[in-house]
């Protein structure tokens, strides 16, 4: 297995000295605007672009000294990119926030005024795409999504930049936080990882959900009631999903608390799953939103410097069991893969 110089450069830029991706995520847009509006008791239209950028700058300034990379959006995050720590690589999001809710399938779209080439020119070390995906959707919906991902993969190949694909599962008409969906989630995650490992997508790193909902894993601190799977069954499901992956994969935090995400990574480590790190957003900084909404940017930075740093260190401490992305290809170093 060999990779091109540009792919090697980008993956190295967003990894730590072990080859593990310990990245922070701050590319939220619609959800962040709504959350800030709620805390300020205003309509979300009153949350300005300047407020969005201010929040992102605070998070990036305080947390990136503790991260191997930061994921940002080019709409509100470019000023934040300039204040990141020198040790932190830069991933830029290419998709629009949210999805098309006028028709079934949660269809995605790309930012109007950007291309992979333009994002690289803006400083991106890697390109990231979020796709809502379930293998159980009708074939015409998934074929459209497959072709969409193929086009983006080809763009990344043309510009010789790594492609990070994030896919988030769902089922129309089902609450993704319910025990009903928790029972379906392992198959949804596993089949999605299998699909996007295929070579035609040119994905370099898959950013994936864990294959269980920790709220329904019996015997864990996160489970407060009914269980969908035992602790041992959950570990088996981690391994089953990992077994189909033909590309390195990292875990997303999916908006859970820092305590829950930390326990999730502990369980992944116990299972022996060979994941290559994380791209963790809200589990580190979301509790700072009320602080910003009520007290402003300086109070947010103070909160981040104490609680936010503790949160990201909690996550980093659970990455001791993570494996270097290049090890996935049987290499002992990233340099050994350069073609």
Commentary on this structure:
By secondary structure, the chain is α/β, with parallel strands linked by helices. The protein has one domain (5-337): Aldolase class I (TIM Barrel). Helices cover 42% and strands 12% of the residues. The protein has twelve helices and eight strands. It has helices at residues 5-13, 30-40, 49-63, 78-81, 116-121, 139-159, 179-196, 231-243, 258-271, 282-285, 289-295, 297-317; strands at 21-26, 69-72, 89-93, 126-132, 163-168, 205-208, 249-252, 277-280. Strands 1-2-3-4-5-6-7-8 form an eight-stranded parallel β-barrel, surrounded by five helices. Helix 7 (179-196) packs parallel to helix 8 and helix 9 (258-271) runs parallel beside helix 12. The longest helix has 21 residues, at 139-159. The N and C termini lie close together (8 Å). The model has no long low-confidence stretch (mean pLDDT 97).
Uncertain runs: none
**Which secondary-structure class do the elements indicate?**
alpha/beta
Secondary-structure element series: HEHHEHEHEHEHEHEHEHHH
CATH architecture: Alpha-Beta Barrel
Strand order of the largest sheet: 1-2-3-4-5-6-7-8
Structure in a nutshell:
The chain is an alpha/beta fold and 339 residues long.
List the helices and strands and how they pair.
Layout: H1 5-13, E1 21-26, H2 30-40, H3 49-63, E2 69-72, H4 78-81, E3 89-93, H5 116-121, E4 126-132, H6 139-159, E5 163-168, H7 179-196, E6 205-208, H8 231-243, E7 249-252, H9 258-271, E8 277-280, H10 282-285, H11 289-295, H12 297-317
Parallel strand pairs: 1-2, 1-8, 2-3, 3-4, 4-5, 5-6, 6-7, 7-8
